[in-house]
Amino acid sequence: MARTTFEPALAFVLRHEGGFADHPADPGGATNLGITLATLSAWRGRAATVADLRALTLDEAAAIYRARYWDAVAGDALPAGLDLVIFDAAVNSGPARAARWLQALLAVPADGVIGPVTLAAAREAGTAGLIASFTARRQAFVESLPAFRTFGRGWSRRIAAARVAGLALVVPEPSTPSPSGKETLMKTESHKNMESPMQMENPATSADPVKPAYASRTLWANAIGLAALLLSWWGITIPGLDTVVLQDSLLQGIAGFGFVASSLFRLVATRRLMP
């Protein structure tokens, strides 16, 4: 919503109205800058002539448009973009009809006067969607007119252009700002450095894999020494096995048995932790 939108809205209307015209099929009769002879007469408070209409200045036309059309549809209070669309429809079809179209779309009392209730409803509605619905309703109206066969193509082009011009003036709704690059980088690094619950609870998943017990050469050496010791206890002699070797084998057998037991326990524990 902004008062300065009257200037682009007026420029749009004048661009489509053109200069003096007096087409016999036009129900409005002679016009100049979009102002009819009847409108100029009402503005001046006396019967205006065609000569008066031809001599109409741009400044006087702008004053008529502001007072009798823009202000009549509360252009300064309407959301930006919607004001242009409503204003252009008011110029073509009258302020009261344009107001009723808007009120019907907003589901408020359609009294033809844009007041506080209509304005509040218009501000709550989505402006872009309201512009699309309003121009569609206006298009349906002009298609129902008998003169549409003669002026329909031009009317349709104007309505489509009003829609585009109105949407260009719509003020975008504020959006939630996205995280800055620095914040995003910090979050990414934090995510990279964070250990998963499985990594925290299961060190085996991040350490080197456990070597199987049967792949340990130390284990096999100790097992052979232990077997030799057991054979000697059962009366089976092994050549070259003296007392010193027997003592060493006994110690190695004890150490080997402990290693085998610890390796097996570790292997079982690792399999339990693995998913």
Query: What's the CATH class label of the largest domain?
Result: Mainly Alpha
The helix tally amounts to 13
Number of domains: 2
Give the spatial strand order of the biggest sheet.
1-2
H and E order: HEEHHHHHHHHHHHH
The CATH superfamily name of the largest domain is Chitosanase, subunit A, domain 1
Low-confidence stretches: 181-211, 216-222, 237-248
Helix coverage percent: 55-70%
Q: In what range is the share of β-strand residues?
A: under 5%
Number of strands: 2
* Annotated CATH topology of the largest domain: Chitosanase, subunit A, domain 1
Compute the separation of the termini in Å.
62 Å
Structural class comes to mainly alpha
Average pLDDT across residues? 77
Radius of gyration: 46 Å
Based on the structure given, which CATH architecture of the largest domain is correct?
A: Up-down Bundle
Q: Name the overall outline.
A: globular
What's the story with the biggest beta sheet? 2 strands, antiparallel
Keywords:
2 domains, two-stranded antiparallel sheet, mainly alpha, 13 helices, Chitosanase, subunit A, domain 1, 2 strands, 275 residues
Secondary structure: elements and pairs:
Layout: H1 6-17, E1 31-32, E2 35-36, H2 37-44, H3 50-54, H4 58-70, H5 82-93, H6 95-106, H7 116-124, H8 127-143, H9 148-169, H10 181-193, H11 197-201, H12 217-233, H13 243-273
Antiparallel strand pairs: 1-2
Helix pairs in contact: 1-5, 5-6, 5-8, 5-9, 6-8, 8-9, 12-13
